[in-house]
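Troubleshooting: if your tokenizer reports a length mismatch, compare your output against this known-good record of 252 residues.
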Amino acid sequence: MNQFGKTLGTALLASVFTLTLTGSAVHAGPTNSPSQQADNPTNTITVVGYGEASGKPEIAIIQLGVEVTDPDAGKALAQANDIIAKVVQAVHEAGIAENDVQTTAINIFSRDVQPTEPGPATAPAQPARAYQAQITISVKALDVTKAGAVIDAAVKAGANNVYGLNFSISDPVKLEEQARVKAVANARQRAQSLATALGVKLGDPIIIEETPGGPGMPVASAAYGKGGGGTELNAGQLNVGVNLRVTFSIQK
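Known-good structure output:
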């Protein structure tokens, strides 16, 4: 190989070596992707604000049931069906629409029943087998003031179980909006307190995440036949809460 070829080969090898070193240097240092920078912004304060608004319930949901025991499973279920039909008719007459009554459970259980007369003295009495049929319906009273009358009508028609009573609000959107405004104010107040303590200036919110707090439990009471009258119910209030996670920019 002549001198020109040797010189050219040496130059090409050096060039390749230089490019390899340069490429390694680019990827050696730590870098932050745009998504990582967005998830962990610098010069910020992040707080969680909470807001809550209350409203009076308009809807009552009642769980009513019939329970019948008989030595024959078929007869127990047939009797329960007859009674629940009367209960459903009674709640319709009390002002509940057909679409607001729903069957939620049908159960048949077997259980032992001790005979009323004992067996011979030499042999203990053996328990007899009986069957318990249960049918449950859910009743939605769109007018919460009718809930007490619905319970009274159902019990009079043969319902012997009242499993539960829940209240709800037909449209919680307005309450959510009120709670959201309070949550924003609470978040800004918390952030400002931190900024003052750190000796920095609070800027604008740059990231906001919302997590609904969910309605609170109502304060409710029931008095059956109080003072000789019908069932009295106190619907209390329902609370709607909103949590906001807010990130504010800060300046020195």
